[in-house]
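Cross-check.
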Amino acid sequence: MSHVEPPKPQQSATGQFIFWGALALVVVAVIWVRQGARRGDQGLNYPGVGHPLPALNLQGLSGGATDVDLKDLKGKVTLVNFWGTWCPPCRYELPHIVQLRKDLAARSDFRLLAVSCSGVEGESLERLREGTRQFLAQKQLELPTYADPDGVTRQAVGMTLGETDIPGYPTTILLDRGGIIRAIWVGYESGVEEEMRRAIEDELAKK
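Predicted model, tokenized:
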């Protein structure tokens, strides 16, 4: 299951060239090493499942999205997808995330929060917003998006997993009606969207 590691802080131009070249090699290695190890731990079996998400604080970014926190999600089944326009696996996955939202649009007890994340340390919110809008327009995808400007929500997910941040991009978490994490997917592999759909439907069936 391919994914991209979280971005690291900026360096000088030469440092960035060396860093990104090394990062590309590391990412390829990590994908190959973790692909087999993590596949069995995806979704319902991922470490951290069963724990409450300690915090969620997202800011509306595009498509009419408005600010949201944990109390706004009470009583709803919620899928939170952390992605970036700069992340190849995210770009493969996003159309499926959009389709999931369309297919479940009639369910008032379901929310999908697509969190656009910057690939550049210190990028302004306005620049992230414009880059996200341009990407969605180019791909002809209709999707309200959110930002996690202070990294509060990503850090909360990381805390649940014993990390300081989410483990990679894309990362998708499923919350039940009480804010408990019921599934986590890191990376994208063809067909994982159907696993997400089944997990969502199972949670929606619970009252």
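The longest strand covers residues 77-83. The first helix runs from residue 13 to 39. Passed to J.P. for a second look.
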